[in-house]
Amino acid sequence: MTRAANWSTFGPFNVRMMCNRLSTIIANFQAGDPAALEIYFNMYKRPLHYFAKSFLKHHAPEAEEIVLDSFVKLWQQRANFNDEEKIKAFLYIVTKNACLSFLNSAYARQHFETELPDDLLAEDPEGHAKQIKAELFEMIAQEVRKLPETQQKVIQLSHYENKSHSEISEALQMSKNTVYVNYSRAISTLKKAFKSQKDWLFTFFM
Amino acid sequence: MNQTAHIVTLLNKYRQNDISAHELQELQQWAALHPTYRKLLEDFSPDRPIPSRPEWADYMASGRSMSFPDLLDRIASQKSKTLKRRIAWLSAAASIVVIGFCSLYFSNKYTASYNEPVAEVVPGSKKAILLADNGRKQEIADDRGLLVTDQGMFYSDGQAVAENILLETQHLNLVVPKGGEYQITLSDGTRVWLNSNSTLKFPPEFATNQRTVEISGEAFFEVARDAKRPFIVQSNYQEITVLGTAFNVKAYSDDELNTTTLVEGSVQVRDRTGNDRFKLQPGQAAIAGKENQLKIESGDVQQATSWKQGEFNFNRTPFEEVAKQIARWYDLEVEYRNKIPQEYFTGQLSRSVDFEIVAEFLKVSGVNLELVSNKLIIH
Q1: CATH code at B141?
Q2: By CB neighbour count within 10 A (0-12 exposed, 13-18 middle, 19+ buried), where does A116 fall?
Q3: Are B16 and B90 in a shared domain?
Q4: Cα nearest neighbour of A140 on chain B
Q5: Is any Cβ of chain B less than 8 angstroms from the Cβ of A7?
Q6: Which Gene3D superfamilies match (chain B) (predicted)?
Q7: N or C: which terminus of chain A has fewer CB atoms within 10 Å of its end residue's CB?
Q8: How many other C-beta atoms are found inside a 10 Å radius of the C-beta of residue A110?
Q9: Chain B residues near residue A67 by CB distance under 8 angstroms
């Protein structure tokens, strides 16, 4: 993943604000600047939490604890990181290990009767696939953020808050047709079915 | 871990239908390593631009309730150094103020309204007018389609058209107005679909040696096979000779070029001077204009015949052409207040939608338009 893709997490305004600091963030992080930690926290908390939940199934509170602990460990060992890729790798590995030991603990067996799949602790395609999925979701989330604001709103309401087109039309105070149009244009853009930048997309069937 | 990042990138390209053959092969080899990998490839297939709703909702909700102050708390409690904690808190509070300003700025932009009312303009429907060269005239507002026989003119279900207009005329014109489309089966069994603002001139009965019709506008022909009588379609700039085949002719008088797109069979096309002639293969298009010599290009059959399937279909289509097609179907006049926008449009749109939806598409695309009675004004 390129740095540019990561930075767009913060939206255009923040990107501009923080670009100057790009090279110094790692240095600040190593030097113990909490603002640098906050940047990494905001960058990775969503995919990491999702990653942890995909191990723990329905134990979201435990997943949160685990992810927070991963960041604590990262902070404690901050002097060892001089590269962003290493930070990401560290966070995923520490989170996965914590999830697995949680599932394996007597506490977990007693309270949740969770069976730990045998091959989960071995060389681990499932864990790998979970990480890929979390990272890919984050990429899509960033693409959604790049859509024009109205389309973003429509996608957010429809796909995140699971609202019907009529409900969206009410919530955003726009006609149903406008909702349909914004929705279908957003989907077209996300699909990138047509790549040419100058083309305007027109895709809609009743 | 670089391997992971690489796979994530490939999967994202695959999902966006933006992957090279080589990369796809690499991805498929990787997916073959384990069933969970194969599952990922299925989950992120290109026809699903956004993951399934419950999963996506779950993802977007992830991490939401984790705040940075929580993390700082946790770090502080492990170190139990109150002073450090306070400094961290202050710095976090400062960042939150900055972020607060940003989101205020963005949420103000969100509230821009898109609610401008657009007058009600309805899509086209099946209608036509029959004009005989003796001046007789009949309006057809029945959606059944016409059938020309030696017994007279019928609707396609066999019911006679009230007045038999076929008597005492050499030629008939089937005129489809703007906002209309119509289908007719000629006396030889050839079927013709006419798009909006198009006229087909044909005889009640064809001659014994050839079958000649004239087209202005756009029509799709399914020519009945008759090796002894070639079927000839004449337009402004082209003459198309066929034995039995299906093709689309687009020859509007306000278009610079006439285009014939062959769907199946074979046709011969020549320009009206007769100097240039070409034989078209299926999928090819013959293009000619007043100033343009006849030339052959590979055509887009689906796009050329989409109107017959009830769709607008654009593929890097210039705005001016998009506007013409829309104006013909919704019976509007286009007026450009400034320069004609130079944008291109791509995609499909059902022809059955209200004009309001089309207008929304154009507006969302940045075209500044206004509808005054039946005039579409482009600013």
Answers
A1: 2.60.120.1440
A2: middle
A3: no
A4: B50
A5: no
A6: 2.60.120.1440, 3.55.50.30
A7: C
A8: 8
A9: 63, 66
In A49-108, the residues whose Cβ lies within 8 Å of chain B are 49-50, 53, 64, 67-69, 71-72, 75-76, 85, 88-89, 92
Same domain (yes/no): B82, B175:
no
Asked if residue B169 and residue B237 are part of one domain, the reply reads yes
Burial class (CB in 10 A: 0-12, 13-18, 19+), A174: buried
* B99 shares a domain with B85: yes
For the stretch B228-263, pLDDT in tens is 899 999 998 899 998 778 999 999 988 888 999 999
Domain boundaries A147-206, CATH class:
mainly alpha
**What b/e string do you get for A24-60 counting C-beta neighbours within 10 Å, with b at 16 or more?**
ebbeebeeebbbbbbbbbbbbbbbbbbbbbbbbeebb
Per-residue pLDDT band for B25 (boundaries 50, 70, 90) equals very high
* Cα distance between residue A200 and residue A55, in whole Å: 42
Domain that holds residue B6: 2-61
Q: Give B372→chain A minimum CA distance, Å.
A: 20
Do B322 and B295 lie in one domain? The reply is no
Domain boundary among B304, B319, B346: B304
Q: What is the tens place of the pLDDT at every residue in A31-67?
A: 888 889 999 999 999 999 999 999 887 666 789 999 9
For chain B, give the mean pLDDT: 81
Indicate the number of domains in chain B.
4
Are B277 and B369 contained in the same domain? no
